[in-house]
Design a protein that fits this description.
Helix content: 40-55%
Radius of gyration: 28 Å
Distance between the termini: 81 Å
Strand content: 5-15%
Number of strands: 13
Length: 734
Amino acid sequence: MGSDEYLPLFETRRAKGRVQYRLLVVSVFVGICLIWIHRVSHIPRKGEDGRWGWIGLLGAELWFGLYWLLTQAHRWNPVYRSTFKDRLSQRYETDLPKVDIFVCTADPVIEPPVMVINTVLSVMSYDYPPEKLSVYLSDDGGSDLTYYALLEASHFAKHWLPFCKKFKVEPRSPAAYFNSSDDPLDANQSKELVLIKKLYEEMESRIENATKLARIPEEARSKHTGFSQWDSYSSQRDHGTILQIIIDGRDSNVTDKDGFVLPTLVYLAREKRPQHHHNFKAGAMNTLIRVSSEISNAPIILNVDCDMYSNNSDSVRDALCFFMDEEKGHDVAFVQFPQNFKNVTRNELYDAVLRVSSELEFHGLDGCGGPLYIGTGCFHRRDILCGRKFSKEYKGDWKSVKHIKREKSVLEFEEKLKGLASSTYDKNTQWGKEMGLLYGCPVEDVITGLSIQCRGWKSVYFNPLRKAFLGVAPNTLPDILLQHKRWSEGDLQIFFSRYSPAWYAYGKISLVLQMGYSAYCLWAPNSLATLYYSVIPSLYLLRGIPLFPQNSSPWFIPFAYVITAKHICGLAEFLWCGGTILGWWNSQRMWLYKRTSSYLFAFMDTILKLLGFAESGFVISTKIADQDVSQRYEKEIMEFGTSTPMFTILSTLALINLVCFVGVLIEALTGKGIMRVYETMSLQFVLCGILVLINLPLYEALFLRKDKGKLPSSLAAKSIVLALFACVGFTLLY
């Protein structure tokens, strides 16, 4: 093709309004600088009331201002991508590369087998040549129930894939499709739908019955020799490699009901031994990379979590538009799709979807070098993921990919490959260091993506109108706080590690991208400034000691401007990203809750790990909930339901602000001090009042609710004592 005939496979558009936004940023930063100047120049003298509170606020405002600067990297140059799949088909339909798809699961209780196979079936059903697709399920739970479910799914796939192809259904997760009523049905499709739905329900019933009984049916066990590999099984953390090629895509005799070949389907439970560290998900992914290189060796790898089913059958072709573009695709290492969820309430009770992050911030990162790798919904070039060095001369040759010759039987081949999944294979090798996903951090995906970018490669963020993947978001407050503790703890560990974006990435990626990474890595330290700001001004308000300028002072203007501009801009962003006003308010509540609980414990645990007093762990968020919890979630009623140190902190902080607000209100009304509060402490009063309003669901859980989602009475009593002790103690101190 001549260069003058070149038509790109994708286009990139820069966001409108960048100049206006940058002017706003400059004006807000001027206001922040004026706030800093006011704090430094008006520090109370020794012996004056409020001196230490004032100095503490100076430290908090310095942190908030500097952190706000880091977050502007996410908004400085957002770009938006679109693909031309018709051009891809015209040029490469007969030469499309093979794609390996990795699905990872780790616990059959938290991640039910039925959910796992729905994800597997959805990615097997991509609108892509089936002979070029291979799907690998990594089961770190080593469960025969998951294996049984996958066997059942392999039989159902012979009916499901032709149905999807014939009627072009979306989404291609059977459970999600049957629960939706988006597509109008003609008579023929309606008839076939009844049949395919009956087959699915029968399969689902068999799997769920086996799961409830925790036992594989004898008929299935005797029919499939693969179950014999569990004969020597000891426990989830102590077993040999279990590898089964369930569907061999090379076998022309294995076809769907219409006679077309099926994608390769492989089950893998890598070897686990108590004496050897298994490196969590990173270890599972690296094992899949090695094993798949001997079975299918596709140049493109997609990895998804087991709860993230495919919602868009064109996602593979979308990703290939970036990799296979003749002019701009050669330096693209990975294509990251957003992490979206199907079970989010209208007003996003827990802000689980991270709307602004997926609809704005990642587009901003894309404009300055590329987004983070977030561990799911990501397409990789295999060779780059395995450590290929960057070269401007690199050209992806999709036709020269090594094809695997298999001379042995499937059983012999499986036995040969088991060594690649042994628990000691990584030792004294470059795996986890220079090859594959990197080890040593709970958020191995982020450091892996950063290391790839530091080698000179680029990443791309693609956010299509029809979401590529939909997952299951936590639907209780304990789960969401625990999830964010793990994320923020891992991110902070990155910042203090050799892979810190502050020094490891210096000079290797753009400064703006460094700032963007650092903003995420420094989630946890936000807890200290937020904790201080949500307690100290309220306590000083109770004592009648002002910590902010009076309304009549010129210094009041920068405070009022920064606060107003930041929150109006935040609300506008949230609404522009498709949210609601109540959703934005919920996100503000979660902003407070995460920073004063999840991030606080993440910060403390990270410091303890750095000092050698603790070790890293990996916690899986639960994907199931009982009916009562689900009903409350759908009604957007916050789920507490237990007593944890996080809830003790949140409750105590909420009650401190309530006591301070009510105390000042009573004093102002009875002592005729309304004007004094208005003139000298209006910002403190408003801050305290907002903290009370934002905690209304927590007060309900403490005192008014009777359902199981309320906070326990013992925690309420403990929080009341702590709050009163703090208020009375502070009052006596002054």
